[in-house]
């Protein structure tokens, strides 16, 4: 199994790239979002990969983060969802957007991806809703372990730049995970807590953990 590729970007197509790894070229299929985030040709690039094996076909799919790769794996497990549909969803929403949409049961957000109809979007939300809390927590763990935000994973540093990097800001994924953990400790069901945290994070994208918990509790409070 090929789990990660690091090399030089040799070629960029409409839905794939060619990465040279010590003289061997690997063809890797990516979402539109991932393609747009890659560096210029000839520069260093690294992608996590998933290998699709069929009787007459071997295809590599690339992702800038392990979180996105995990969502690809889960999406591919839904009946009627192939690699192309999974990449379309991830390209439209991004991994955190997929987490929020599924936690909130937002069928319309999933349906916005090219080629995804209402019935398919509803099936995705229903089958993966219970997975969202775990994936949201996984995103925070990965961000903390790697010490970087998702958008910075494959960024190539400028060797001639002498400017100081900006102080690291707490990852939104980390704040969401901590809020999710707090609500779970208060006795809320994982899917219920994930939905409230996702909605709070949508309303307040830059909120830190205490503000997210407060906003989520307000959403979970009995109405009337």
TrEMBL record:
Residues 73-92, 108-127 form the Helix-hairpin-helix DNA-binding motif class domain. Gene3D superfamilies: 5' to 3' exonuclease, C-terminal subdomain, DNA helicase RuvA subunit, C-terminal domain, Nucleic acid-binding proteins. Residues 159-175 have a biased composition (Low complexity). Residues 158-178 are annotated as: Disordered. Residues 171-224 are annotated as: Domain III. GO terms for biological process: DNA recombination; DNA repair. It is found in: Cytoplasm. Keywords: ATP-binding, Cytoplasm, DNA damage, DNA recombination, DNA repair, DNA-binding, Helicase, Hydrolase, Nucleotide-binding. The keyword DNA damage applies. GO terms for cellular component: cytoplasm; Holliday junction helicase complex; Holliday junction resolvase complex. Residues 1-64 are annotated as: Domain I. Pfam families: HHH_5, RuvA_C, RuvA_N. It comes from the Bacteria. The keyword DNA repair applies. GO terms for molecular function: ATP binding; four-way junction DNA binding; four-way junction helicase activity. InterPro entries: DNA_helicase_Holl-junc_RuvA_I, Hlx-hairpin-Hlx_DNA-bd_motif, NA-bd_OB-fold, RuvA, RuvA_2-like, RuvA_C, RuvA_C_sf. Homotetramer. Forms an RuvA(8)-RuvB(12)-Holliday junction (HJ) complex. HJ DNA is sandwiched between 2 RuvA tetramers; dsDNA enters through RuvA and exits via RuvB. An RuvB hexamer assembles on each DNA strand where it exits the tetramer. Each RuvB hexamer is contacted by two RuvA subunits (via domain III) on 2 adjacent RuvB subunits; this complex drives branch migration. In the full resolvosome a probable DNA-RuvA(4)-RuvB(12)-RuvC(2) complex forms which resolves the HJ. The RuvA-RuvB-RuvC complex processes Holliday junction (HJ) DNA during genetic recombination and DNA repair, while the RuvA-RuvB complex plays an important role in the rescue of blocked DNA replication forks via replication fork reversal (RFR). RuvA specifically binds to HJ cruciform DNA, conferring on it an open structure. The RuvB hexamer acts as an ATP-dependent pump, pulling dsDNA into and through the RuvAB complex. HJ branch migration allows RuvC to scan DNA until it finds its consensus sequence, where it cleaves and resolves the cruciform DNA. Has three domains with a flexible linker between the domains II and III and assumes an 'L' shape. Domain III is highly mobile and contacts RuvB. Belongs to the RuvA family. This is Holliday junction branch migration complex subunit RuvA. The lineage of its organism: Bacteria, Pseudomonadati, Pseudomonadota, Alphaproteobacteria, Rhodobacterales.
